Amino acid sequence: MPRVQHNPSLTGKVEYLNTVLFRLGNCCAVFSAWIHGDPRKVIYPTDSHGQFCVPLRILIKSFCCHLVSFPLLPLSPCYSHHRGIASLLNAKEVGMKIFEDYANSWKWILIGLVMTMAVSLVFILLLRYTAGVFLWLIVVSVIAAIGYGIWHCYWEYSSLSGKPGTNITISDIGFHTDLSIFLQLRQTWLIFMICLSVIEAIIVVILIFLRTRLRIAIALLKEGSRAISYIMSTLLYPIITFLLLAICIAYWVVTALYPSNCWFIIKSVTFFQTFSQTNITKVCPGSQCMFAFYGGESVYHRNILVLHVCNLFVFLWLVNFTMALGQCALAGAFASYYWALKKPNDIPACPLYSSFSRAIRYHTGSLAFGSLILSVVQMIRIVLEYLDHKLKGSQNACTRFMLCCLKCCFWCLEHVIRFINRNAYIMIAIYGKNFCTSSNDAFFLLMRNVIRVAVLDKVTDFLLFLGKLLISGSVGVLAFFFFTHKIPVIQQETPSLNYCWVPLLTVIFGSYMIAHGFLNVYAMCVDTLFLCFCEDLERNDGSSSRPYYMSPGLHKILRKGEEGAKLCTAS
């Protein structure tokens, strides 16, 4: 049985040291922003001296007049930037109505979210017994839907037979923006029918040759529900993740507000539009109305943009680290279930707490290093999106093509790194090795089981996505009928609302996020059990000296698959 190493390796120490050094640098930047910044200046306008505009003041620079303060002109550079905020303030009535709707319906919104938690819990527990039926129902539904598409294409193809103009080929017509023209051709429906037939044949062939893999996937889904039923505390971990993410977001917002006031005001340097309408030029010929820069030409003011970029990067790193910590903690808890020979007697006490403590104490550097790699790629994607936004009006086709290719490549790279990191964190939770070694072991272990990985990953993702839609959709439909007074039994309890979509959208979005949190725990459980399953197959042979740690049901399906493979080889 794999044992967790309770001594961090040398690489882990280096990763931890790099993380500490970067955090110290970030703390210095944040401390500088908090000293020099003032978040009130983002909301309230200021004059040239940096004082709040009560009353407004401008500075007049002239050849014959000294620099004087002139009171109360209608438009200020402060206000040129804050014009958008003023327009938002005009929507006060709408905001008050929305606030009133939340005040009247918050109890029912809370009831809807609690119902979502209960439904998510029941859904996960029922998957232990209905995963097989649900999965095969999805497969049969997909085959039936494609079969209906083939029949419909054949029906359209036959119905167009003999009609004038329907035998013209697509090449004869050429390109048209009106796609309905192509639907009047028999060749179009023939192409559709052939494509759907090929897709149907491919799916059927895959199901025939991968039926054993699908059965293993179903068994792992059932095993995941069984593991969660023994470690119910894992279902509460999304609450911890939510709280940590809320702290990260609050930290980022507060830090961004402090240096932002100088950045926005500097960007707002404009001439007064009302200066030419006054008689100041007659009183003082040659005078000009200019916005005097305030705040000083210090290193801090010259590098405000750099501080914002660093703050954004740190935010991405903190979010990815929070997600990595949750994945490692959950993986350690579920791995302790799998490697218990006699379940549930050999499962250690408080497995989630023990795994979380190990992750915090021994694996912080490895988790931070993996999060750093992912954050760098995400930051590059943000820069590419910014360049794409700036170059939208560019007529250079080559530049736009190269930028599009780079965006696509880094999108793929981000998803590959997410996949590698997720499995590396599982290996870290099991063996306690550093990130590089764990990612290498996890990658080659998955490559040796690439067919199982492809089948299980897609099947699990699709099944859990349908579960999220089912949970959030059912609660959303119930909320719609309730808030629109469509349920006669409790119609009198329905609160009076200005906008019924306010609590409705809140319930739907909250339900999806809750279902996403619960089912992500389930997905992490299945991924952990799958890696343990592959490791179990390579380390053990089922003998009395090296028994399998997998459950009897999973072992039974595996044995049948091996016997079927031997028969195929012998024949």
TrEMBL record:
It is a multi-pass membrane protein. Pfam families: Choline_transpo. It catalyses: choline(out) + n H(+)(in) = choline(in) + n H(+)(out). GO terms for molecular function: antiporter activity. Keywords: Antiport, Cell membrane, Glycoprotein, Membrane, Transmembrane, Transmembrane helix, Transport. Its main location: membrane. GO terms for cellular component: plasma membrane. It is found in: Cell membrane. The chain crosses the membrane at residues 106-126, 133-151, 189-210, 230-254, 314-341, 362-384, 462-484, 496-519. PANTHER family: CHOLINE TRANSPORTER-LIKE (SLC FAMILY 44), CHOLINE TRANSPORTER-LIKE PROTEIN 5. Choline/H+ antiporter. Choline transporter. Belongs to the CTL (choline transporter-like) family. This is Choline transporter-like protein. It comes from Sander lucioperca.
